[in-house]
């Protein structure tokens, strides 16, 4: 685990120690939070005797790509249920093409049916076509995803004390896991990559409280830094990613971590963080997404 200082002028002016946790370097094919969320799910699939993983995602889903790679690495069969009609995804974009190359069977659902994917009747119909499978939710966010993400906090605490831990949010599973691993005054901040993501607060509470009586007041969700919506790469965000790479030698992904860091720098300028505090930002990977945007900036 590598912690990289980020000597940003806005952090120095705020009197804040700003660090980047390079969780994107943890595994060459399953970097960052995707591996952490899959770790205990893969163990459970094996324990239950499953040989197939079935999961859901959009056409550029990092999670779909990670499940396909995990299947190839572990010998498990994988099925990806993709949002949208098949003809709309022809030819396959680089994410789906790589997933298929990794052995994933792609199954396309029209958007109306996809919205009902959690209904028992829809899921039963899918499983009739694929055979028995261990079902992973969209984004991999379920109860078994949390302990893998909580381990990041334990590993980080061995390197440095910190006050704030910042992470990008898609489905909320990573933030929920981090929250359960915090201690004392440590706080977690999530930065939504989706437009209109207020619903994530409910989802995160549902995940963290499942099966327990614990309450977690040590986190907050920021929803103003989505940059126009999921997978929207504005010219301003692209320029920020370029400039960040020049300053720090780190390539950010175009969907998640780049938006989170923009948000953190804006909050620093606004005096959000306590002077003298340590703020750790998490690079969760997702660099495969650049193929869908014509390559690195």
Automatic annotation (TrEMBL):
Swiss-Prot/TrEMBL cofactor(s): pyridoxal 5'-phosphate
GO molecular function, one term: D-cysteine desulfhydrase activity
SUPFAM superfamilies: Tryptophan synthase beta subunit-like PLP-dependent enzymes
Record-annotated Tryptophan synthase beta chain-like PALP domain positions: 10-285
Pfam family, one: PALP
PANTHER family reported in the protein's UniProt record: 1-AMINOCYCLOPROPANE-1-CARBOXYLATE DEAMINASE-RELATED (PTHR43780:SF2)
Family: Belongs to the ACC deaminase/D-cysteine desulfhydrase family.
Protein name: 1-aminocyclopropane-1-carboxylate deaminase/D-cysteine desulfhydrase
Phylogenetic lineage: Bacteria, Pseudomonadati, Bacteroidota, Cytophagia, Cytophagales
């Amino acid at each position: 685990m590598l912690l990289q200082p980020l000597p940003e002028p806005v952090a120095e002016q705020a009197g804040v120690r700003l660090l980047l946790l390079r969780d994107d370097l943890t595994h060459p094919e399953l970097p960052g939070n995707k591996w952490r969320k899959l770790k205990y799910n893969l163990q459970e699939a094996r324990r239950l005797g499953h040989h197939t993983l079935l999961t859901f995602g959009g056409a550029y889903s990092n999670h779909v790509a990670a499940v396909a790679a995990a299947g190839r690495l572990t010998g498990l069969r994988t099925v990806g249920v993709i949002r949208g009609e098949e003809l709309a995804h022809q030819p396959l974009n680089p994410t789906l093409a790589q997933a298929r190359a990794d052995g994933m069977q792609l199954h396309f659902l029209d958007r109306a049916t996809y919205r009902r994917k959690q209904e028992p009747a829809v899921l039963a119909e899918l499983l009739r076509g694929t055979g028995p499978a261990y079902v992973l939710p969209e984004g991999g966010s379920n109860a078994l995803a949390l302990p893998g993400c909580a381990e990041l906090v334990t590993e980080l605490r061995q390197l440095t004390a910190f006050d704030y831990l910042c992470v990008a949010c898609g489905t909320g599973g990573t933030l929920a896991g981090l929250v359960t691993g915090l201690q004392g005054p440590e706080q977690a901040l999530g930065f939504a990559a989706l437009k209109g993501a207020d619903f994530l607060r409910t989802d995160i509470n549902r995940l963290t409280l499942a099966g327990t009586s614990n309450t977690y007041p040590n986190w907050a969700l920021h929803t103003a830094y989505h940059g126009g919506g999921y997978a929207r790469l504005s010219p301003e965000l692209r320029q920020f990613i370029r400039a960040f790479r020049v300053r720090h030698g780190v390539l950010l992904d175009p969907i998640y971590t780049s938006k989170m860091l923009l948000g953190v720098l804006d909050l620093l300028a606004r005096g959000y963080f306590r002077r003298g505090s340590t703020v750790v930002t998490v690079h969760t990977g997702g660099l495969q997404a650049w193929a869908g945007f014509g390559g690195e900036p």
